[in-house]
Design a protein that fits this description.
alpha+beta; single chain; Ribosomal Protein S8, Chain: A, domain 1; 187 residues; elongated; 5-stranded mixed sheet
């Protein structure tokens, strides 16, 4: 039996248009795979700044931490490149932006996570995606006192020109193992 498509009254349609406002369709036919972001093609170029670093650092020789103090598993992250209004900062920290795409880095090596992240950011830029979630996990393991991937992602994002701001997610969205990220357009 075929299910009937629900009917929407003209009044509801008008109300919806009032709240949504003016919209513009995306120009790109290509879409980000939201079901399994780790399957995104790595065909896009890596940023020049990172290309040499990535080739020069075999996985076993990558330093554990690039910055002064490593971040702990439960520590929240926040970064703002500047230029955000206070209201936008609060919305980011509260997770009040609709996430347009998500990348899960669980189970990847540092080298794989780097490649996935750079390709994902390139893809988001080409599709004008501005609000994303990155799942790096909390990195609890016996091998290290600090989460390796969380620290690496923190450093890579701070150095990446496309990143406007990021914040650890709320508890309901994964807490210290997930980041809300606000991107800006790069040509």
């Amino acid at each position: 039996m075929k299910s009937k498509k629900p009917t929407v009254s003209e009044e509801d349609k008008a109300l919806f248009r009032t709240y949504i406002g003016k919209v513009q369709p995306l120009n790109s036919v290509e879409k980000v795979n939201l079901q399994n972001p780790s399957q995104i093609s790595l065909g896009s170029r890596l940023h020049k700044k990172y290309r040499a670093e990535f080739k020069a650092e075999p996985e076993l020789e990558i330093p554990l931490y690039d910055r002064q103090n490593p971040i702990t598993s439960e520590e929240s992250l926040y970064f703002n490149r500047g230029g955000l209004q206070e209201k936008a900062k609060r919305k980011l920290k509260r997770g009040q932006f609709l996430s347009e795409a998500e990348l899960d880095l669980h189970g990847l090596t540092v080298a794989q996570a780097y490649q996935e992240l750079m390709a994902f950011l390139d893809r988001c830029n080409s599709q004008s995606i501005r609000h994303i979630r990155i799942i790096h996990g909390k990195g609890r393991s016996a091998a290290s006192d600090y989460p390796i991937l969380k620290n690496k992602v923190n450093n890579w994002l701070r150095d990446h020109p496309q990143i406007l701001a990021f914040s650890s997610a709320t508890k309901n969205d994964g807490g210290a193992g997930v980041l809300y990220v606000w991107l800006r357009k790069i040509d």
